[in-house]
Amino acid sequence: MPAYQPWAQGYHPHNHPAPVNGLAIASLVLGVLCCLPGVGLVLGLAGLRQIRRRGERGTGLAVGGAALSGTGLVLWAVLIATGGASALWHGFEDGARGGRTLALTEGECFDTPGGALSGDTYDVHRVSCAGAHDGEVFATVTLPGGSYPGDDAVGDTADERCWSLQDGYAMDGWAVPRDVDVYYLTPTEDGWAAGDREITCVFGNTAEGEDLTGSLRNDETVLDPDQVAYLKAAHVLNAALDTAPDAEYVEDDLPGHRAWAGRVSAALGEQARMLRAHDWPARARGPVAALAADLDKARAQWAKAARAGDADAFYEHYDTGFDLIDPSLGVPARRALGLATTVPADDDGSDASVQV
């Protein structure tokens, strides 16, 4: 008599129970996961027919899967009808982006957990710009695709782009309080892997935890055409002044300072041309004409500095030309145009050396 390997639970080796229906199993799995409720319902019903016809096991599985899938199908229909499916998807999408649920746009104001704009920020709460808030978005920058460039590279790009874009949102720098600084929110490496390529440029208070109140926006959407024309002309000079060489002393880089003086001279000429080309209201014509005349005098001095043969000659014309772009010279024109008239101060308390 042949020997048999013992079976667990005392089954006879020739006892073959009926198989479990595969469609019933699949229906239950889909019903529990609720990912394809329509498919789960169809598989459950089909499984029941096969079980009756083939004598297979799994009736409970098929019934349970069909019931769960039917319930899931109803829930999905309700979500789609009410827009909840879109919100649910965005929730999953935000989670895939490393928890960064920002998606802020230009002009929006927000609060952060703890009120800080430093360190990791995973969530924000949109609030009205009219009241107190932690930050105000003034620009967004989309980075190119490819592999993650690294935290330092992303930070350097954010620093450069955000500083260059702030004037487009807050055109009148004189109207921006001294306690406001530029911050930015950047994608993490995990967020980058999930498709996040956006830098969010933000105005915030220089003192951590302190609020801003009221919107800082002053651009074409807020200002009138005369104000915009004046500020665009002023920005030409500001851009040139910002290209000063790294060397602080002329003696250390005379060629670099002469090239810079040439750029400033050209900008002064362009600024004066733009001011004269605009049709100003009667109240602003005299002050703007006087400013343009001062700019002409300044341009001549900066042009001589650009041709200086040595550091002493450079300083001579530079000092005179610098005095002729003193910000206070623009106050009468600004007052006539309804722009801010308080000259902003540098960190050392002196008047800022820009016309904006």
Automatic annotation (TrEMBL):
Keywords: Membrane, Transmembrane, Transmembrane helix. It comes from Streptomyces corchorusii (Streptomyces chibaensis). This is DUF4190 domain-containing protein. The chain crosses the membrane at residues 20-48, 60-79. Residues 107-210 form the Septum formation-related domain. Residues 23-79 form the DUF4190 domain. Coiled coil: none annotated.
